[in-house]
Design brief:
Interacts with TamB to form the translocation and assembly module (TAM). Belongs to the TamA family. The chain folds into four domains: 70 residues, membrane protein fhac (Ubiquitin-like (UB roll), Roll), CATH 3.10.20.310; 83 residues, membrane protein fhac (Ubiquitin-like (UB roll), Roll); 63 residues, membrane protein fhac (Ubiquitin-like (UB roll)), CATH 3.10.20; 307 residues, Porin, CATH 2.40.160. The protein is built from eight helices and 26 strands. The strands form four sheets. Strands 11-12-13-14-15-16-17-18-19-20-21-22-23-24-25-26 form a 16-stranded antiparallel beta sheet, with no helix packed on it. It has a four-stranded mixed beta sheet with strand order 4-6-5-9, covered by helices on one side. It is elongated, with a radius of gyration of 36 Å.
């Protein structure tokens, strides 16, 4: 009945309900408001004064409380703030101006100095290099005779503990871990003896939730059963599973007991292993960890890995619109199937529509024994091109079968056989050709940030050829090398370099279709010229494309605001038929970059130095640089 009445009261008269609530909040039975105290520290400065203020910051005195009754607590907090710095016998006086402000005068007294330091690692980790590096990097080993500081001790102890978890010493313990303080003789004795125990090795992998064969997921692991445990290998395994595209969510964890963690505090605190002894040798506190019992180990020092995954959607559709000065407005449609069966086969299809080019491409992937490293693929595509500025009209269809290798050094190698049929008109040349083209390619991309890297590079190498010996309509050997670098000088200066070299050897260049000839000019080559309008010409001025290609670019960028960069650049290049061009078309200009969530938006204004018809040309593009 009481609950019913209260609900009716609030619903029927909201003003009265608010009044009743206010009276309840301010009733005498409730606590009085409290405020954080403001501390004026005298007698000590810098880190000591800061730590005293941090210790007293959480002290709150109720409105009706007497301030003097809090003097003892203030003194104790000040003592606690000084101990991490080796001061255990300070003189402290406290003076309250009011309950919100206190003045503390401190004479820290003579510091405690370290008489001896015993620090060592025992067990198999004694010869494990990262542990030795941790000992060598710690100032604790050289602090004998100096004022006691707790932070180096705790830092080294935390580092050794972290290394044990990272490197599989799951039975590790501290056989000795204490700071023994004798204030009466101003002395401290440090003992930190880490006993690593046996290093664990990887055990079995247990998979749950996968629609892909478990043996395939196990082969993607960067470790083998019985390899020495490394937490970084567990992270790499999770990354590989994510790169497969098969799963919406992934969890890869060693099967270990739960461990608690402490929330970091801005205060510099005393080590929990520190104990203070009086003149009779009796300890005032027993918080050191000498008596920790070793956990019972299994019969084999192995740790199983649990993999829990959630399948990705079987069908994914994407649409997008874009614009660049090379092709104008364009629309993209994508239909991707990340997995088709329990082997992990995948199928991707993309349709790109623009005024001068319409392209449909697809790729069917068949992963091999190690899906993260090797796969077979079939690629197919249709492309219709009608570009009046480059005098190119063609319809191309192709199918290729290939093998891909992904190496540990980030290089990707492809070996393929492509069949291409192309019906084309290039300038005054018309033909229809059927080509069987074997080829090899190598590529590598390295970057520190895919959206807007401050360091990175990309290399692409292609070698392919065709011959009438195996039924092709043309004989040629063709190669192309692309390289791009990004380097920075400080956080505000960025340099971008780009170079492309291409060459073709053939006995009848007229049989080589436009898709395999070289053109240059446009957003990503020689700016200042229209897309693919630099190439050899016939007597009527029609573009024919070249046997060879040479393009280079150098760009300097300077940050001018948070996500805005200004750029200046110079480009040079040409497509030609002799082994060296008569001249390189050159342009220079300035630009602006805005770092959007999907990559930089680029606007460039370039001036060509070798064209009487063009004066300035605007270029626009969006998306990652690699």
């Amino acid at each position: 009945m009481r609950s019913f009445f209260r609900n009716r009261l609030i619903a029927g008269n909201s003003a009265r309900g608010v009044l009743v609530l206010a009276l309840l909040v301010t009733s005498p039975g409730q606590s009085s408001p409290v405020f954080a105290i403001d501390t004026d520290v005298k007698g000590v400065r810098s880190e000591l004064a800061t730590n005293i203020r941090n210790y007293l910051q959480s002290l709150n005195i109720p409105e009706n409380a007497g301030t003097q009754s809090y003097s003892a607590e203030v003194i104790q907090r000040v003592k606690d703030a000084l101990k991490p710095y080796g001061y255990y016998e300070p003189d402290i006086s406290v003076s309250f101006q009011n309950r919100e402000k206190v003045t503390v005068e401190v004479d820290h007294g003579e510091p405690v100095r370290i008489r001896s330091v015993v620090v060592r690692v025992e067990g198999p980790a004694e010869n494990d290099e990262p542990f030795q590096q941790a000992l060598e990097a710690s100032p604790l080993t050289e602090m004998e005779g100096r004022r006691l500081l707790h932070t180096p001790y705790d830092t080294l102890k935390s580092r050794l503990t972290a290394l044990a978890l990272e490197r599989g010493y799951f039975d590790a313990r501290y056989r000795q871990s204490r700071i023994e303080v004798h204030p009466w003789e101003h002395a401290a004795y440090i003992s930190l003896v880490f006993e690593s125990g046996e290093r664990y090795r990887f055990g079995d992998i247990f998979v749950t939730g996968s629609q892909i064969r478990e043996d395939r997921l196990r082969r993607m692991a960067p470790f083998d059963p019985d390899d020495r445990y490394l937490a970084t290998d567990v992270a790499r395994y999770s990354q590989r599973l994510g790169e497969s595209g098969w799963f919406r969510s992934i969890s890869v964890r060693p099967r270990l007991e739960e461990r608690s963690s402490r929330t970091p505090s801005p205060r510099v605190t005393s080590s929990p292993d520190a104990r203070i002894e009086n003149e009779n040798g009796q300890s005032e506190q027993q918080t050191f960890m000498d008596n920790l019992r070793a956990r019972e180990r299994p019969q084999r020092a192995t740790v199983p890995i649990d993999v829990s995954v959630t399948p990705e959607d079987r069908h994914k559709f994407e649409t997008g619109i874009g614009y660049s000065t090379d092709v104008g407005p364009r629309v993209n449609f994508g239909w991707n199937m990340p997995w088709l069966n329990d082997r992990g086969d995948s199928l991707n299809n993309d349709l790109v529509l623009s005024g001068p080019e319409q392209t449909l491409t697809g790729e069917y992937n068949v992963p091999l024994a190690n899906p993260a490293r090797d796969n077979y693929y079939m690629r197919y595509g249709f492309k219709n091109t009608d570009r009046t500025e480059s005098d190119t009209r063609s319809f191309e269809s192709s199918v290729s079968f290939g093998r891909e290798w992904r190496f540990e050094n980030d290089w990707i190698q492809n070996a393929y056989l492509r069949t291409t049929y192309e019906d084309f008109t290039q300038g005054d040349e018309e033909d229809k050709v059927l080509l069987f083209i074997p080829g090899m390619s190598w590529s590598r991309t390295r970057t520190d940030n895919t959206r807007f890297p401050m360091w990175g590079d990309r290399q692409d190498i292609l070698v392919e050829g065709s011959s009438d010996a195996w039924g092709s309509d043309a004989n040629f050997l063709r190669t192309r090398l692309d390289s791009q670098w990004i380097r920075s000088l400080g956080p505000d200066n960025r340099f971008v370099g780009r170079a492309t070299v291409g060459a073709t050897s053939t006995d009848d260049f007229s049989k080589v279709p436009p898709s395999l000839r070289f053109f240059t000019g446009g957003d990503s080559s020689v700016r200042g010229y229209e897309y693919e309008t630099i190439s050899p010409e016939n007597s009527d001025g029609d573009l024919l494309g070249g046997k060879h290609l040479l393009v280079g670019s150098l760009e300097y960028q300077r940050q001018v605001a948070n996500n805005w960069w200004a750029a200046t650049f110079v480009d040079a290049g040409n497509a030609f038929n002799d082994w060296w061009p008569d001249q390189l078309k050159t342009s220079a200009g300035v630009g602006l970059r805005w770092i959007s969530p999907v990559g930089p938006v680029r606007v460039d204004i370039a001036h060509p130095f070798d064209s009487e018809e063009n004066s300035w040309r605007l270029h626009f593009g969006i998306g990652p640089e690699f």
